[in-house]
Amino acid sequence: VQLQASGGGLVQAGDSLRLSCAASGLDFSDSAIGWFRQAPGKDREFVSIISGRGTLKFYSESVKGRFTISRDNAKNTVYLKMNSLKPEDTAVYYCTTKRGPTYSDYYAEGSYVSWGQGTQVTVSS
After folding, report:
1. In terms of CB atoms within 10 Å, which end of the chain has fewer, N or C?
2. What distance in Å separates the CA atoms of residue 3 and residue 115, rounded to the nearest whole number?
3. Which spans in the chain are helix H?
4. Which residue ranges in the chain fall short of pLDDT 50?
5. How far apart are the first and last CA of the chain?
6. Are 69 and 78 in contact (CB under 8 A)?
7. What's the pLDDT at 100?
């Protein structure tokens, strides 16, 4: 399984970015894909997850209402649209494949199997 995250960059507070996660080597439409992030000096934290068919989506409280996760199974790609970015959103963002059902322990890093290399998002104030 290979996951390639892209789309990060340096933006100002209030701006938007769209991250992409291109996947290969898996049955993509049957795979729930999640996004985590890790800020300097902090643990990696859950951001969002989407089920294989796109019918289930979950978000962390810190991004709910600002971030939207979606997927295009024809392109084997998951997206994370990030609006109203804040300096505290600064982190390396990782996409990852979920083990087991989408709704089961989706917030726990240990529930995920394969990880991409991450893409840096920096939000200046």
Report:
1. C
2. 6
3. none
4. none
5. 37
6. yes
7. 87
Reduce the DSSP state of residue 65 to 3 states and report it. Answer: coil
User: Residues of 20-36 as b/e, b for ≥16 C-beta within 10 angstroms?
Assistant: bbbbeebebeebbbbbb
Query: What is the pLDDT at residue 82?
Result: 98
Rounded CA separation 60/44 (Å): 13
pLDDT (0 to 100) of residue 102: 84
Q: Using CA atoms in the order 1, 121, 91, 21, what is the torsion angle rounded to 10 degrees? A: -20
Closest CA to 31 of 49, 6, 58: 49
Write down how long the chain is: 125
Q: CB of 20 within 8 A of CB of 77? A: yes
54 DSSP 8-state letter: S
Q: Which two tokens stand for residue 52?
A: 């294989």
Q: Considering only CA atoms, give the Rg of the chain.
A: 13
SS3 content of the chain, % helix, strand, coil (to 5): 5, 50, 45
DSSP three-state, residue 91: strand
